[in-house]
Amino acid sequence: MAIIALLLSAAAVAIDQILKLLVTSNMQPNSGFTVIKGFFSIFYIQNRGAAFGMLQNQRWFFIVATLTVSIVMIYALFKYKQHNFFSYAAVTLIVGGGFGNLIDRVLHSYVIDYIYVSFFPPIFNFADCCVTVGTVFLIIHILFYSDLNSDAEKVIRTK
Hints:
Layout: H1 2-26, E1 31-36, E2 40-47, H2 59-79, H3 85-108, E3 111-117, E4 120-124, H4 126-145, H5 151-158
Antiparallel strand pairs: 1-2, 2-3, 3-4
């Protein structure tokens, strides 16, 4: 099952990069168009920071952080013994989304963002959606499905 999760992560990266290629091939930075008036637009920006524009121009910090989190998640994918749908989905989405944005940072020094919804002001991308949903799945797994009395969980909680 771990190999399937990694293959699905690779598929998420591919989808992310295809969407970004479509945006950059057909639009200029800081331009966009409305898909659903007053609700959803495609607006291409080059994001050199994190969510909400935080930590601008900290490219190497994000590269190292993404690689570190991804390595830990992949390690856990193979070593953790209590996986369920939420834990597999969390790793798949977090690693896939992380690598999607990592590719942008390495190749361009910025992340290509293009999704704008009226109720959430920051512009984001597919990879961001993957990381966000994956994080929610990880929280659900930890809160509702992990065995907090296992030896591994005790070690984590006592540090």
